[in-house]
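Appendix B, record 7
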Amino acid sequence: MDPSANTPQLLRRTNLRAVLEVLRSTPSATGTDLIEATGLTRATVIAVCDDLISRGWARETVPPRPEGQKGRPARRFEFNENAGYVLGLDVGIATVRVLVADLAGTVVGGFEARFPRHGGEPAERRRVLTNAVDAALGDAGITSAAVLCLGTGIAAQVSGDGTLAPGQATAPMFELGLQKEFGEVRGWPMLVENDAKLAALAERWCGVGSGEKNLAVILAGERLGSGIIDAGRLLHGSRGGTGAMGGLELVAGVGNEDGIAKLARVWGSAALKAGHSGRIRELVGPKTNRASARYVFEAAADGDPVAEEILERIAQRMARVLALVSSFFDPRLIVIGGAVAASAEALLPAMTRELAGYVSDPPRLAVSNMGKLLVPTGALRLALDHVEEHLLELVPQVRRPN
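Structure tokens (predicted):
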């Protein structure tokens, strides 16, 4: 076949994408604005805008007529952020969180649900998850037909093709047949990624690491995991293993992947069993020796010396992990996220001090301000990236006003 046969079609797609890129980056634009931004002729710009409107990706606005102006005002065009929606899921062991966003990234709905105790069987987990998705769609006021992509974060290593890397103990928790449920039945492109990697996408998109091109995010709740942004690109590795923390057993003074919340809970409980009678005991009460991470941090803030010593040990341990990440990836910023991110603010001074003893020019340390929405927000970003890349191949379902 003559390659030149596809030239008009390719040129049309190129023009569509050029105009769409401009419309997505500005509140609205006139034909003249688009001509200046793209270098296309007026006839081509107007034809492209009409094409985008017919496809549902753009809409024409009615500008106010300035007093005294004669003639028809210039046509203005804007991107239709309601042409479709994306979903972001955070599928954990105990909970699932769902966010719904329009194509501008604005969250318009969401839902959170708990799985059965100890995780539940696959059929139970799948039912809880699909019900949570439907509840989130209901909260957003949209139907399944309006969804253009679904991004999902899981607490497991994910290969480049979106499948679970083999040999993981937690894999059965996430092998739920969701590709069939959402991909085949509902027709949604479904993307799966490791939760820490999605946390890195979220932080660079709209968190404390916004715009940072060299960034590491460490999820530090129950277990440690990291996502790495290098030169603006999320690092993945041949089998999705970049940022995995399995090798911490080889690091002196660390030894495993236990995160801040787990360490605070385990070491706080050990102190109670050993007879500690200070502020931790007052918070927990006399009938149990099980201390929560929240109580340990609260006791330390109240001046409990045992709790303060626990946090110092955690900070020293975390500094070794941060030094390892710094040495391997050289980020300018490391963000601590996960279930204890808010409490981890208390650890920053000690971690910063300890890290300076290992790394000559240490990165800046910060704590995420996105809370439990960190991973599902990253999943939204993953889905939005897919939609933006494949925009012209997707068929939007325009949301009509009620």
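Remarks on this record: The chain has twelve helices and 13 strands. The first helix runs from residue 7 to 24.
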